[in-house]
Each structure stands twice: as structure tokens, then as C-alpha cells.
């Protein structure tokens, strides 16, 4: 296991979770490597961890650590080299009128209502929707609203000020990290594509070299969209390569 040599990161300890059902590959079990204690994973420490393939879920920093599977590959996009495809240019044009606000990460009823509708449409009445509404709201807050790092939410609204999309983003030392995006699935739109394109443009404005896109899995249809954004670097044996 290769970890950063920064002194503050050396104070962390790491443990491997028990096996749990993989959310991306059916009939597979997954395990994660968790960085502890959580309170030490601040913006500086997380900037080092993300360069080593870690991601954030709430206050947890983790990376896949499956004994017999290495399908999850960390990918990032060097934003200065990105050129949009024709379909991506159409998405930029189509959604250019969306009004954008950058706010501190936190809980908002309007956001949660959009998130709930998005999850229901995308995942139906799975296990995460069988509990009480209060339970789902608590899970949402833990997942996207609680953070120890520098996290923000991007609101995308139409001309009538209707909320159409929310993107949760972490700011790290060498880029932006796309945490999660949810949007109004009732519209015939390419909101997800537009969100990534907007993040690429914003990273350029901030003079940050990378947009971290999380994990890519070749055999997961849920991950296919990430390969539409090129060029990419992937983390292989602790080294970022094309």
C-alpha cells in the first residue's frame, strides 16, 4: 500500500472493512480501505489522499481494497487539454441559460426533494427507499452535506428559478473533485454532461490542473459516461498515467 509521505498524513491509520455487496458489479463483494480518525482528514490531508486514489463519502475518506478485484480505477482529467466533442458542444449551448450559484455545502429541503426524486427515478424502490423519509434525509445529509474538507454545492436553475441540478464538489490542492450530481430527470436534457463541462471550465478559471472524476469500471454501464471526457489519466500502481 503506497501512501503520501507528508507528515500530517502519517498520523492516519487505515483499516479494511468487511465485505459488502458491490454497488457496480452484480454478484461481487467489495471492501474499502478507510482513513481514520476522521477529524484528521481535513482539506490538506484529503488533497494528499485523493492523489493516491481515495474518495470522500460524507466525512469518510476511502478507496477500494478488494482482495480479488481491481476493477475500480481512479481517473482524472487534465482540464487544459480538454476539447469538447460535438455532442458536448451542443450540451453547452442547450444549457447556457442556466443560472448558477455557488454555495457552502449544507442541508436544504429543496435540494433533498430533488435528490429524492432523482434517486426514486434512477433506482426505484430499492433498499435505500424502504425506510422512513426521515431516515432517507439523514442518509442524504451524511452522504453529501457532512464534510471535513472544502466542499461546495453548485445550484443550476432555469429562467423561472426552478432548481434543475445540484453538483457537490470538493476543492483540493491540484484540482476539483466531482463528488456527486443529481438533477431533474423529467426534462429531456443533458444535465450530467453539462455539469462536468461546467466543472472543467471552472477548474480552468481557478488555474487548477485537474478534475477528479472518481472511479471508472470498464464493465459498469453506470461509469460509461466518464470515458466521454478525454484525455484522461488513470492511477496505476500509485502512478498517474495516460
From TrEMBL:
The keyword Metal-binding does not apply. It catalyses: N-terminal L-glutamyl-[protein] + L-leucyl-tRNA(Leu) = N-terminal L-leucyl-L-glutamyl-[protein] + tRNA(Leu) + H(+); N-terminal L-aspartyl-[protein] + L-leucyl-tRNA(Leu) = N-terminal L-leucyl-L-aspartyl-[protein] + tRNA(Leu) + H(+). It is found in: Cytoplasm. Its EC number is 2.3.2.29. Keywords: Acyltransferase, Cytoplasm, Transferase. GO terms for molecular function: arginyl-tRNA--protein transferase activity. The keyword rRNA processing does not apply. Residues 110-235 form the N-end rule aminoacyl transferase C-terminal domain. Residues 20-90 form the N-end aminoacyl transferase N-terminal domain. It is an enzyme of class 2 (transferase). Functions in the N-end rule pathway of protein degradation where it conjugates Leu from its aminoacyl-tRNA to the N-termini of proteins containing an N-terminal aspartate or glutamate. Belongs to the R-transferase family. Bpt subfamily. This is Aspartate/glutamate leucyltransferase. The lineage of its organism: Bacteria, Pseudomonadati, Pseudomonadota, Betaproteobacteria, Nitrosomonadales.
